[in-house]
Amino acid sequence: MRLQTAAAAGKPGGESSWLHRPQPQSLKEVGVPEIFLANLTLKHTFYLDVFVLADLVDRLRLPTTIVNQLVDYLRKEKYVEVRGPDALRPVANPLSLANRYALTDGGKRRAGQLLEYDAYVGPAPVSLEDYWHQVRQQSIKLGKVTPSRLKEAFQDLVISPDLLGLLGPAAVSGKPLFLYGPPGNGKTTIALRMGKMWDDTILVPYALYVEGNVIRVFDELSHPTVGESGLEQTDRRWVKSRRPAVLVGGELTLAMLDLAFNPTLKYYEAPLQLKANNGMFIVDDFGRQQMSPQELLNRWIIPLENRQDFLCLHTGHKFSIPFDQFLVFATNLEPRTLVDDAFLRRIRSKVKVTHVTKEQFLEIFKINCRQYQIDYNQDAVDYLVENFYEKTQRSMDACHPRDLLEQIIDYSSFNQVPPSLSRENLDRACRIYFVY
Asked: Alpha carbon 267 to chain centroid distance?
């Protein structure tokens, strides 16, 4: 495979260099064993009945010349037979002139056997070597994070300049970030907004080939696509995507960090950290997972140090994958009660997100009123602050304005009256919202 050099990715205009992967010109350049590609082609034909080369080109994401070689091999093995041109199909392009093909009885039997062994029917996978090279080319450390991009990502949030000043350098480092502080003050929102600081594009493979096995990588939820993967001269086995932002919370288990083998389909789903490569991996509510923080430390202590992780196939074969991501831990628990100094040492930045000030609280209230289309009432908010915060010495949290307004909306909806920000409605909302 003709690959770009790492130096090209680091110079001005480097983004275009890592996005340009020339399409393979031969079976050897695909980087995957030819017999595997032939078997994958045969599995595709099983679902096509009668087909032309263009059908397989679109499904395999390989050039016509390579697909033609694979079909010729299947024809010589008597798995596929030629049916001739389609007389009913109008001639629209050169591929319309191509012969139609169909599976023979022997081809159907062989395809059925292959599908029982491995039911993956998707674009041709890329080699692990190619994947390593591509991840290095588009490393999260090469993404441009500037003060203007940072402000743009947080432009509609109320956040102090001091806090922004801490988040920017943390993102530039590409090293793990620990967000901690009382609940309800935007740690998760901050983490997700940080993912918008990178506005560049990366390439994500549909799948990987490892020792005869397929690992599906591309995930529409994790990888927001950016148009087509490229034009004719681009390797279409890769998808153009924004840098991913994978978010997990209390549901995280150790099993989710390992390959997930589907016993029915007989292929693997990539673990979360593999899908998060070249982007962000956010562990929300850290300390409340179904495993102890120490177990997570033991699982990631080497990846955090060496920026590579190790996975194991069900055959016992162990292999390494890149661990290139901006890792963010967010928790409302005291950090030193969760992890030891060895773990904290590997987290470059620790940023505390605390309660909001009165000025920020009022600004958040105004923003939420606009979002919910409720007239802002300064008198009612002053009453709220005096009686439910200052007199009770309750801390102001960023989530309170939204939650109190939603309480008012729920009450108004039930009683079929227009919602309004009044003293009476705030009194009622606070009684049901706060714990006394």
From this structure: 20
